[in-house]
């Protein structure tokens, strides 16, 4: 298959997050983060497919009392903290133009509310950025990827408290000042819409402490919108020429049938998903959301100046994750299927992954076209990929043809979308090196081109090994998407 549509300078690469990768959770002066408290639950015992919520002070106290006992995979990650040189050399070998990573907020501000940053944390990322620079790889850095300092949860109940806006902006300004000249692409909040699925992971909220959960979540989100816009402003002032974007867990929603009820249900689901980018790209709350707040007794407290900040400091580009599409029905009693954070009706035309996620490459093209029509700003796919069980053969090879097929099909659709006029500037496939799953804390749910020898319980040598997809992706990049 040959395609010729990717523009020169297209940013090919891979994506990760500190909490799933670094490990060393208590080294270098790092404070605890929300995900350090999420333990592994074996599949048979899992109530849901996603296990990542802490809901009350009592639960948190019990987890803290456990100290290092128990299985907390995100605390160990894949030890990137000590092995980043080896890993970056492998990314360079694949020809990465960019590497998406996050800065762990509690590595820089262990409690989140201090004035003085932790120099050891800052120095670590200096080393990582310098290593990337050695190979000409542009870092794409997420400021907040589910790494809220735990202290901010305990003391302030997370983003429900307006003071977090200032703490976050101070953190953002600190890293912009430190890394100007080294980092030119930034993202504010990873999957900013996650809070409506997990208030704890998205906003650091212990839901037992609030009376009206939805009210608390949307208020917390308002604080994040303001913090994000102020970070955009600071980024433009401190690093002229840098680009800073928002990040959405995109969910393309199809109606189950052409019944107007189903079409309306799908439209409303879609609006709820695009609300977040409406605020961050257009700079104001859409009227459908104001109507929704009114109907559901949600009152967003906005301070004077908030609306102005949102309007004047919109993002330079829109980034998003795309793993699947969903189906909506006008009949609420229909059985729902799972997705990462979403549920919908099973689409009979699509296959599913080992984790039940509906694989839909063409949906990526649909979504690219729809979002570009709506916003007219550059788009960046910063997550996409297949979580699968991989097998190491006796000769040591890992033949992940299923992953190649998945990625090829998605990249083909990206190429078509570009041909059809979409301004797509980059693609970083998720988990370019195997890492800990966000949703299930599994190591065995693998996305990488690089295999990491570790199991769900932390057994293994951590040795890195190239999968078949490694050379395939290397060719994709070398040919700028022409050879798939
Ligand atoms: C996205 C997150 O939702 O999906 C990543 O931004 C995450 O952090 C990815 O890892 C895949 O989800 P999971 O649960 O398979 O790790």
UniProtKB/TrEMBL annotation:
Instruction: Tell me which stretches of the chain form a coiled coil.
Output: none
Q: Which InterPro entries match?
A: GH, GH_1_N_CS, Glyco_hydro_1, Glyco_hydro_1_AS
Keywords for the protein's UniProt record, in alphabetical order: Glycosidase, Hydrolase
GO molecular function annotations of the record? beta-glucosidase activity
> Catalytic site residues?
383
Which GO terms are recorded in the biological process aspect for this UniProt protein?
carbohydrate catabolic process
Pfam families, sorted: Glyco_hydro_1 (PF00232)
Q: Name one GO cellular component term.
A: cytosol
Which protein family is it in? Belongs to the glycosyl hydrolase 1 family.
State what protein this is by name.
6-phospho-beta-glucosidase
Q: What species is this protein from?
A: Litchfieldia salsa
């Amino acid at each position: 298959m040959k395609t010729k549509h990717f523009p020169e300078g297209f940013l090919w690469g891979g994506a990760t997050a500190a909490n799933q990768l670094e490990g060393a959770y208590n080294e270098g002066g790092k404070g605890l983060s929300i995900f350090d408290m999420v333990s592994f639950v074996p599949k048979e015992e899992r109530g849901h497919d996603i296990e990542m919520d802490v809901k009350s002070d009592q639960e948190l106290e019990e987890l803290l009392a456990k100290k290092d006992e128990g299985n907390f995979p995100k605390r160990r990650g894949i030890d990137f903290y000590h092995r980043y040189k080896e890993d970056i050399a492998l990314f360079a070998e694949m020809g990465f133009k960019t590497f998406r990573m996050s800065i762990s907020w509690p590595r820089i501000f262990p409690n989140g509310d201090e004035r003085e940053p932790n120099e050891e944390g800052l120095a670590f990322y200096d080393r990582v950025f310098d290593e990337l620079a050695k190979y000409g790889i542009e870092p794409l850095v997420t400021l907040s990827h589910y790494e809220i300092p735990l202290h901010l949860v305990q003391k302030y109940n997370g983003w429900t408290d307006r003071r977090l806006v200032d703490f976050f902006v101070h953190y953002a300004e600190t890293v912009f000042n430190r890394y100007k000249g080294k980092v030119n692409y930034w993202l504010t909040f990873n999957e900013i819409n996650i809070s409506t699925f997990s208030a704890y992971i998205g906003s650091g909220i212990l839901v037992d402490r609030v009376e009206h959960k939805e009210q608390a979540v949307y208020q917390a989100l308002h604080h994040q919108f303001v913090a994000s816009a102020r970070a955009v402003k600071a980024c433009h002032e401190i690093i002229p020429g840098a680009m800073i974007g928002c990040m959405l867990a995109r969910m393309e929603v199809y109606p189950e049938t052409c019944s107007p009820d189903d079409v309306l249900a799908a439209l409303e689901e879609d609006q709820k998903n695009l609300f977040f980018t409406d605020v961050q790209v257009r700079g104001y709350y859409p009227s459908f959301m104001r109507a929704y707040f009114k109907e559901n007794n949600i009152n967003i407290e906005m301070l004077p100046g908030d609306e102005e900040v949102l309007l004047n400091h919109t993002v330079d580009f829109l980034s998003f994750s795309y793993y699947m599409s969903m189906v909506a029905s006008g009949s609420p009693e229909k059985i729902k299927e799972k997705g990462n954070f979403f549920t919908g009706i099973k689409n009979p035309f699509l296959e599913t992954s080992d984790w039940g996620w509906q694989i839909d490459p063409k949906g990526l093209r649909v979504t690219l076209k729809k979002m570009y029509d709506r916003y007219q700003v550059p788009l960046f796919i910063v997550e996409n990929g297949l979580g699968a069980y991989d097998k190491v053969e006796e000769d040591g090879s890992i033949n992940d043809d299923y992953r190649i097929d998945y990625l090829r099909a998605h990249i083909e659709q990206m190429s078509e979308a570009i041909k059809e006029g979409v301004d797509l500037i980059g693609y970083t496939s998720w988990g370019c090196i195997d890492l800990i799953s966000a949703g299930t804390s599994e190591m065995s749910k693998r996305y990488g081109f690089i295999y990491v020898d570790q199991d769900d319980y932390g057994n293994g040598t951590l040795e890195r090994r190239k999968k078949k997809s490694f050379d395939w992706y290397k060719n994709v990049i070398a040919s700028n998407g022409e050879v798939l």
